[in-house]
From TrEMBL:
Residues 57-172 form the Methyltransferase domain. This is Methyltransferase family protein. Keywords: Methyltransferase, Transferase. The keyword rRNA-binding does not apply. It holds the Pfam family Methyltransf_31. The keyword Transcription does not apply. Coiled coil: none annotated. GO terms for biological process: methylation. The lineage of its organism: Bacteria, Pseudomonadati, Pseudomonadota, Alphaproteobacteria, Hyphomicrobiales. InterPro entries: Methyltranfer_dom, SAM-dependent_MTases_sf. It comes from Bradyrhizobium huanghuaihaiense.
């Protein structure tokens, strides 16, 4: 695999995304690598709906922003074929290492992966037909500048398509665990980011998305609601589902710092909440997303 963008672009220690660089390279997010199969199964259907919206064609060039362990990158590589090209960028060394392994396993020569901050990386101007992201685009500390940077990487005929979360309240596959855990934790243990701060729900407000993308120079900005049933575990698997969800949601940071007894109590509280909704299909909660499209 050739690395024409950069194989190891230093990610800024003090730029607007410094906190996120630390977070996505920390032990709190290591489960995104170890649980890659399960997270792809969970997030894949919503991500695939956004890929269908992007509708990439053979021989096109795609930039996958915040590609993580590469699930969507591999799918784009299949769709654009050997004549096309997919560039996956991410600030997380650990997740990109897993993506690299998977690209090699598939033998996809049409993929380039780079450790890079998509908000500031000097992409080839007008180099891409598509910019895409599956939940990797909500973490910019300076979002207007970041999206402006991405816009300049699109051909004039190109299009950006991304999947982002609607509100925490609508995304019960994340919020149910947080609500169950809160009574056991100090008030400030799970800080709620402000509406303008980077994080999973930073693009939940459609007016904010329109404002940011508009100020970044995008036009024809459209948001379409996409709901998905998120299955965290099978029938009777409340404990397993609690263990799973606690490793990728906002409670991960908290969990790592707890003593074993407190950790068990937290898992048990979340499992109890899941038992209330356990049904014939198991523990199925709501995923609420926007599929956003825009042109440069
Ligand atoms: C919620 S994860 C999603 C990962 C992957 N797209 C998936 O769906 O499995 C968010 C990803 O965005 C990446 N990310 C956050 N800020 C970024 C930035 N400024 N530039 C590139 N990647 C970023 C993180 O490192 C992480 O891999």
């Amino acid at each position: 695999m050739e690395d024409e963008v950069s194989s190891n672009e230093p990610t800024s220690d003090d730029g607007p995304n410094a906190r996120m660089v630390r977070y996505w390279n920390s032990s709190a997010t290591a489960p995104w690598v170890t649980l890659q199969d399960r997270l792809d199964a969970l997030l894949g259907p919503a991500g695939d709906a956004a890929i269908r919206e992007a509708n990439p064609k053979s021989a096109e060039h795609v930039l996958d922003v915040g590609c993580g362990c590469g699930g969507s990158t591999l799918e784009f590589a299949r769709l654009v074929g050997k004549l096309g090209h997919v560039t996956g960028v991410d600030i997380s060394d650990q997740m990109l290492a897993r993506a690299r392994e998977r690209v090699v396993e598939k033998g996809f020569a049409q993929v380039t992966l780079a450790v890079a901050d998509a908000g500031s990386f000097a992409f080839e101007p007008a180099g891409f037909d598509h910019i895409y992201s599956r939940l990797g685009i909500m973490f910019f500390g300076a979002p207007v500048a970041a999206f402006d940077n991405l816009r300049s990487a699109l051909k004039t005929s190109g299009r950006m398509t991304f999947l982002c979360c609607r509100t925490a309240a609508e995304n019960t596959y994340i919020s149910t665990a947080v609500q169950a855990a809160r009574p056991l934790l100090p008030n400030d243990a799970v800080p709620i980011p402000g509406p303008d701060e980077p994080g999973m729900f930073s693009l939940a407000n459609p007016s904010r998305v329109q404002d940011i993308l508009g100020r970044a120079g995008f036009r024809q900005i459209e948001l379409r609601r996409h709901d998905e049933r998120m299955r965290l575990g099978g029938p009777g698997e409340a404990i397993e589902a609690a263990n799973f969800s606690l490793q990728f949601g906002p409670l991960t940071r908290v969990l790592n710092d707890l003593k074993p007894a407190a950790r068990e109590a937290l898992i048990s509280a979340v499992a109890n909440a899941y038992r209330q909704i356990d049904g014939p299909e198991g523990i199925v909660l709501q995923g609420a997303f926007w599929i956003v499209t825009a042109r440069p």
